[in-house]
Amino acid sequence: MAVPLLDLTLQYHAHKDEFDGVISGIFERSSFIGGAPVKQLEADIAAFCGTEYCVACGNGTDALFLIMFAAGIGKGDEVITTPWTFFATVEAIQHVGATPVFVDIEPGTFNIDASKIEAAITPKTKAILPVHIFGQCADMDVINAIAKAHGLLVFEDACQAIGATYKGKRAGSLAHAAAFSFFPSKNLGCAGDGGCVTTDDKELADKARLFAAHGASSKYHHSIFGGNSRLDTLQAALLSAKLPYLDENNSQRHDAAKYYDAAFADVDEIETPVERDYGTMVYHLYIIKSQKCAEVQAALKDAGIGNAIYYPLSLHLQEAMKLLPDWKTPSLPISESCDNRCLGIPCFPGITQEQQDEVIRVILGIL
Ligand SMILES: *Cc1c(COP(=O)(O)O)cnc(C)c1O
Q1: CA-CA distance, 60 to 131, in Å (whole number)?
Q2: Cα separations (Å) of 139 from 14, 106, 179, 276?
Q3: Exposed, middle or buried, 293 (CB in 10 Å: 0-12/13-18/19+)?
Q4: Choosing a second label site near 90 at 20 to 30 A (CA), which of 18, 78, 282, 320?
Q5: Residue-wise over 64-73: b if at least 16 C-beta within 10 A, else e?
Q6: Nearest to 287 by CA among 133, 171, 164, 165
Q7: What is the C-alpha separation between 102 and 64, in angstroms, rounded?
Q8: What is the largest CA-CA distance in the chain?
Q9: Which string of b and e fits 249-269 if b means at least 16 CB within 10 Å?
Q10: Is the CB of 85 under 6 A from ligand 1?
Q11: How many CB atoms lie within 10 A of CB 21?
Q12: Cα 60 to ligand 1 centre (Å)
């Protein structure tokens, strides 16, 4: 039985009439840029996360950039981040002219190791950018305390973690500002690209919004050089319709993850994800780590089971890093030990026990 890594058609078919109605409603008005649906989504996301402001934008990569820009991070500044993330995290740092400084990750959660951050702070450090990787919040109290002691800003890359909690608060409300992505495969995905910034800082929100609209505070009057990063009206309307189902979908991911945890508990060759008790993980991805990753991957492929390596190469080892001035490749042994060893397996809302049993059967069969 073939099992996809992610089946997005389930979400559509579960609410087909509602989503179709939203889409045709936008076409009936044929107003495709801005407008009430975008304002509504911003209000919905801010309320969901527990922040004052939300600024919708074109994608998660732009959201990260807009935060860096609006916070005044720039040339000569250093931003501490994790090597175990999607490349967009460091692109945002580089695109404002700042330098990424990588700190190694924790073995079980793959999140930045907060205990190693302090040693990486220099007089040039301006901010810390943890990533809530695979849907689990980084240890934000520890990170925020370090930042406070050193006068640094903290931003969340929450692109994989919408709905996750940390000590009762939602991802997106745990630092100065946060970036989300609505890329289709994310936990709250639209029908294309989308993203947003959440924050309690009005000035940061205003600046991000200004940049995203060509630096124009009123039409054809430009106070700064900005760019174009909009969330389409259609996407905003769809996202507002999908948001009420997010917690339910996330808890289905969580249940599926616990089912795998139990199945692999006694298997020495597999390390399952560690969920810290300070919050609830939303399992954007369920990752198994194994020295036999290649064999497991080949077996899954033969059986028609979707899977993917997250990630093949730590960011500090990427070719592009050598383009940074004065770049010296750091040694980050935990992150490096995860390269090509971590496999995402099917863990999506609506996955059936039968499908999970098939994944488990194939994996246990090869080990
Ligand atoms: C998806 C993702 C991004 C980028 O989001 P896009 O909407 O694809 O631009 C950034 N950071 C992380 C951790 C992501 O997973």
Answers
A1: 12
A2: 35, 10, 17, 9
A3: buried
A4: 282
A5: bbbbbbbbeb
A6: 133
A7: 17
A8: 65
A9: bbebbbebbebbeebbeeeeb
A10: yes
A11: 13
A12: 5
Q: Best mutation site among 86, 137, 232, 310 for ligand 1, i.e. most ligand atoms within 8 A of its Cβ? A: 86
Burial call 212-246: b when 16+ CB within 10 Å, e when fewer: bbeeeeeeeeeeeebeebbbbbbbbbbbbbbbebb
Mean pLDDT by 10 residues, the chain (367 residues): 96 96 97 97 98 98 98 97 98 97 97 98 98 98 98 98 98 98 98 98 98 94 96 98 98 98 97 98 98 97 98 97 95 97 98 98 96
Report how far residue 55's alpha carbon sits from residue 204's, in angstroms, rounded to the nearest whole number.
Answer: 10
Q: Which amino acid is at 248?
A: E
Structure tokens at 224: 């700064």
Instruction: Give the span between the Cα atoms of 37 and 47, in whole angstroms.
Output: 15
Is residue 209 within 8 Å of residue 33, measured between CB atoms? no
- Ligand 1 pocket check for 82: Cβ under 6 Å: no
Cβ(144) to ligand 1 under 6 A? no
- Is the CB of 348 inside a 6 Å radius of any atom of ligand 1? no
The ligand 1 atom at the shortest distance from the C-alpha of residue 160 is: 15
Å from CA of 10 to ligand 1 middle: 23
Ligand 1 contact, 86 CB (< 6 A): yes
Tell me which DSSP letter residue 11 carries. H
CA dihedral 91, 164, 171, 271 (to 10 degrees): -50
Q: φ and ψ at 101, to 5 degrees?
A: -120, 120
The alpha carbon dihedral of 306, 283, 116, 125 has a sign of positive
| Whole-model pTM over 0.70 | yes
| Residues 130 and 93 sit within 8 Å (Cβ to Cβ) | no
